[in-house]
Design a protein that fits this description.
By secondary structure, this protein is of the alpha/beta class. It folds into two domains: about 5-280, 3-Layer(aba) Sandwich (UDP-N-acetylmuramoyl-L-alanine:D-glutamate ligase); about 290-425, Mur ligase, C-terminal domain (Protein-Tyrosine Phosphatase, Chain A). It has helices spanning about 5-10, 25-30, 50-65, 95-110, 115-130, 165-170, 175-180, 200-210, 250-265, 270-280, 295, 315-325, 345-350, 375-380, 395-405, 415-425; strands at about 45, 70-75, 85, 90, 135-140, 155-160, 190-195, 215, 220-225, 230-235, 240-245, 290, 305, 335, 360, 385-390, 410-415. Helix 13 links the parallel strand 14 (about 335) and strand 15 (about 360). Pathway: Cofactor biosynthesis; tetrahydrofolate biosynthesis; 7,8-dihydrofolate from 2-amino-4-hydroxy-6-hydroxymethyl-7,8-dihydropteridine diphosphate and 4-aminobenzoate: step 2/2; Cofactor biosynthesis; tetrahydrofolylpolyglutamate biosynthesis.
């Protein structure tokens, strides 16, 4: 355990017994810290249900290709907390992180505050004190009352596709959740909308009219169409702009990439940098192929191991479509799945009904909110998939490969928490 882990553990004890989304605790702490949120470089504020992290990854690669120094704030982390805070291109150093967390701890005292709020305050301190040209700020949960929404005047807002997730906090309908996400929209600040359902789009358009905020809407103001080995982008005065296939696999990544392109053009990034960034972006656990480590060695010769952290039905549908495309090589597919108890397991596995992969369920290790493997297997079976359980990841990978057959493609999926365990266990 690192020194910063010890501080994070102490801060967790200040967490309110019930999460009530509010900006009051955050505003109080930031005032005691001298308002670092008012001393930031230009901000791109990114919300949405799925695709936030990928869109940030593309934008960071594009801006860095243009020679800019870029801060980035993302969550959750996969293996180490430091992953959440990137300062001018590099992950925050352990010593600096510990000092910032302790400073926030002293400023907050014993007052209740959520883990995400106090760590976001530490990140904002880091961003304010380290010179940079741009800050890519990803929302943690929702938008309107998220701890990141203390930034009152971003340069650009981005909202990736919105669907049902975190219903216990954000609402039980797409419209209600879109209303929370729309909270990051600001007067006169342009907002780029990734592909949205009609229900969500109506909410965003109404909010934009109220705020007099310019909207750039995917499918209307800009489009992306797959073409050969890449895609063409039309919008912002460009017609049929030929761009390379994004570095991250899956057709849904073309949509995320196009959203990033639209935002990058609002930031006046050069076309050459935008093109370079598309092929340079990296984002772990998003349909990532693992090529070495003990879990890979648990496969029979000729097998493949992949990893994805998508955890809701919308993400599962995009993942299933990407896997269907990969299936053109004739490899049989099997899933190793672990889910958090609050997630829609039936909706998640329903997305894979057309592919009919066998499922091996695991309980996410050392995770209090993990759904038991037996419950996961039951949900997969209810969706019409053959399902079994395994005691650990290595056993699950071996069993999944055996169930699929020769040259199996095994995908570990269902949770970013599980993805983090996989990356740690696999070195």
């Amino acid at each position: 355990m690192t020194t910063s882990d010890l501080v994070l553990e102490r801060l967790t004890r200040l967490h309110p017994k019930k999460i009530d989304l509010s900006l009051g605790r955050m505003e109080r702490l930031l005032a005691r810290l001298g308002h670092p949120e008012r001393q930031l470089p230009p901000v791109v504020h990114v919300a949405g249900t799925n695709g936030k992290g990928s869109t940030v990854a593309y934008l960071r690669a594009m801006a860095e290709a243009a020679g800019l120094k870029v801060h980035a704030y993302t969550s959750p982390h996969l293996v180490r907390f430091n992953e959440r805070i990137r300062l001018a291109g590099s992950l925050i150093a352990e010593e600096a992180l510990t000092a910032l967390l302790e400073e926030c701890e002293r400023a907050n005292g014993e007052a209740p505050i959520t883990f995400f709020e106090v760590t976001t305050a530490a990140a904002l301190l880091a961003f304010a004190r380290t010179p940079a040209d741009l800050l890519l700020l990803e929302v943690g949960l929702g938008g309107r009352l998220d701890a990141t929404n203390v930034v009152t005047r971003p340069r650009v807002a981005v909202i990736t596709p919105v669907d049902l997730d975190h219903k216990e906090f954000l609402g039980s309908t797409v419209a209600a959740i879109a209303g929370e996400k729309a909270g990051i929209m600001k007067p006169d600040v342009p907002t780029v909308l990734g592909p949205q359902s009609r229900e969500a789009l109506e909410v965003f358009c109404e909010r934009a009219d109220l705020l007099d905020a310019p909207l750039l809407v995917a499918g209307a103001d800009f489009t992306a169409r797959r073409s050969g080995d890449g895609f063409t982008f039309t919008g912002a005065g460009r017609t049929g702009w030929a761009l390379p296939r994004p570095a991250l696999p899956g057709n849904h990544q073309i949509e995320n990439a196009a959203t990033a392109v639209a935002a990058a053009l609002l930031l006046d990034l050069p076309e050459a940098a935008i093109t370079a960034g598309l092929t340079a972006a990296e984002w772990p656990a998003r349909l990532q192929r693992l090529t070495r480590g003990p879990l890979v060695r648990a496969l029979p010769a000729g097998g493949e191991l992949w990893l994805d952290g998508g955890h809701n039905p919308h993400a599962a549908r995009a993942l299933a479509a990407a896997l269907e495309e990969l299936a053109a090589d004739g490899r049989p597919l099997a899933l190793v799945s672990g889910l958090i108890s609050t997630k829609d397991a039936a909706g998640y596995f329903g997305a894979f009904a057309g592919l009919q992969p066998p499922v091996v369920a695991v309980t996410i290790p050392d995770e209090a909110a993990a759904r038991p493997a037996a419950d996961i297997a039951a949900a997969a079976a209810a969706a019409g998939l053959a399902a079994e359980t395994a005691p650990d990841l290595a056993a699950a990978v071996t069993l999944a490969a055996a169930l699929a057959g020769e040259r199996a493609r095994v995908l570990i999926c269902g949770s970013l928490y599980l993805a983090g365990k996989v990356l740690a266990e696999n070195g």
